[in-house]
Amino acid sequence: MTTDGQGSAKERVSRRKVFGLGAAGAATLGAGMVAANTLLDEPPQAHATSTSDPFPFYGEHQAGIVTPAQDRLHFVAFDVTTDKRAELVELLQEWTAAAARLTQGKEAGSYGAVGGAPEAAPDDTGEALGLPASGLTLTVGFGTSLFDDRFGLARHRPAPLTDLPKFPKDQLIPEISGGDLCVQACAHDPQVAVHAIRNLARIGFGKVSVRWSQLGFGRTSSTSRAQSTPRNLMGFKDGTNNLKLEDSGLLRDHLWAAAQDGSPWMAGGAYLVTRKIRMMVETWDRTSLAEQEQIFGRNKGEGAPLGKRAEFDPLDFAAKGPDGEPHIKSDAHVRLAHPSSHADARLLRRGYNFVDGSDGLGRLDAGLFFIAYQRDPRKQFVPVQMGLARNDPLNEYIKHVSSALFACPPGVRDGGDYWGRTLFEG
User: Fold this and answer.
1) Do 293 and 260 lie in a common domain?
2) How far apart are CA 415 and CA 133, in angstroms?
3) Which domain holds residue 290?
4) Per-residue pLDDT tens for 364-390?
5) Are 163 and 377 in contact (CB under 8 A)?
6) What is the dihedral of CA 371, 374, 376, 382, to 10 degrees?
7) Which ranges carry the Dyp-type peroxidase C-terminal domain (predicted)?
8) Is 2 inside a domain boundary?
9) Is 3 a member of any domain?
């Protein structure tokens, strides 16, 4: 093992016997390495050029964070049911091997849905046969509960991975909060995203169980300047001033964890906060346009700051209207969430709309599945959300029902690497 905890690809694969396949796998090490590194039929692209194309799986950072946000989401949180560390590591190795295939439009296992023995269960569920990669990305995170005494990880728990405080007005449901592991599947085709999660859950049978999951549609943030700003279910543009993949300096300072932060195994990773925010859309829909715009601090059509004309016009909190009052009120959402209100705290948002049917009173169970990545939630998400929870008039129309925090490790470097290797072998 090298001093930086990575080692060569050959060393890493030989230590773990080719993704846990034991002596038989070790006997085919050379062939396994070739196969792992030639999953693509052509060289990986830096960016997908259409909604059908794949994104690269290997890299310094996990895909699905700064990757241009896709249209669909299937997010799942798992509880680990095994108490054996070796089985957890083996699962992460198997998941990584499957993810490397799935994200390139291939089936989860080498025999696929129909290529194995008829008397054996297929190693792919088959519902994505014939579908392209559709920009699928799979992103893994480790929850605070994974760092208990089951797997010897307590001493490796990063300081930023601390349970979030209870925010004013939270109405959290424990059954759809937290989790030992998470997988975020984003794609342009919902069937591709669902297929990926279904197959990872199938591979994890006996080692993990699904704690909760969430389907999402209609991204509510832009993570690239090439993307237009989308709208949330309240009809407003969402995430205008989001961090973007082109903001390399800001990403270094506000997104990616670094070795000097205190947990070297997280270098190149990021911390993920999820919040399921139900919107009282029926009440909102009866609110006047003027009040809606005052609550957000932007106009509904263009998304421009009040008093300005265009979406990306700079916010001017000192500007006043003819009546002498500020165009943007002191408790407007855009002011309360602005970095200037929280020591320059910035987030990379990657949320999605959701509609989960209706409740017993005929009201839509709909809202925002909020996703935000950052370098340290204690300095970023927590102060921003605390300010919003205490003062945002939008709270009259929303309620937070689910919450989770995960440490997303750095990317998988090559075919001999796996999700979480820096934690388990570093």
Assistant:
1) no
2) 19
3) 281-404
4) 999 999 999 999 999 999 999 999 999
5) no
6) -40
7) 229-412
8) no
9) no
Encode burial over 195-219: b for 16+ CB neighbours within 10 A, e otherwise: bbbbbbbbbbeebbeebbbbbbebb
- 305 and 361 belong to one structural domain: yes
- For residues 45 and 103, membership in a common domain is answered with yes
187 lies in a domain?
A: yes
pLDDT band at 24 (very low <50, low <70, confident <90, very high): very low
| Whole-angstrom distance, CA of residue 9 vs CA of residue 30 | 11
pLDDT reported for residue 165: 97
Residues 54 and 45: beta-carbon distance below 8 Å:
yes
> At a CB cut-off of 8 Å and minimum separation 6, what does 35 contact?
110, 415
Residues 415 and 400 in one domain: no
17-21, long-range: CB within 8 Å, 24+ apart, which pairs? 19/90, 19/93, 19/94, 19/96, 19/97, 19/418, 20/89, 20/90, 20/93, 20/94
Pairing of strands 181-187, 72-80: antiparallel
Question: Distance between CA 423 and CA 426 in Å, rounded?
Answer: 6
Spatial distance between the Cα atoms of 28 and 136, rounded to a whole number of angstroms:
29
Q: Show the tokens assigned to 27.
A: 């006997």
Whole-angstrom Cα distance, residue 265 to residue 80?
21
Of the candidates 310, 331, 349, 346, the residue with the CA atom closest to the CA atom of residue 392: 331
Name the band, by pLDDT with cuts 50, 70 and 90, for residue 25: very low
Determine phi and psi for 408, rounding to 5 degrees. -95, 115
Q: How far apart are the C-alpha atoms of 34 and 30, rounded to whole Å?
A: 6
The CA distance from 80 to 277, in Å, is 26
pLDDT at position 95 is: 98
- pLDDT by residue (tens digit) across 150-197? 999 999 999 999 999 999 999 999 999 999 999 999 999 999 999 999
**Number of domain units in the chain:** 2
Is pLDDT of 145 > 80?
yes
| pTM of the model as a whole | 0.89
Residue 142 placed within a domain = yes
Give the angle subtended at the CA of 384 by the CAs of 380 and 390, to the nearest 5°: 150
Q: Rounded to whole angstroms, how far apart are CA atoms 67 and 187?
A: 11
Q: What are the distances in angstroms from CA 219 to CA 80, 139, 228, 238, 354?
A: 29, 16, 11, 9, 10
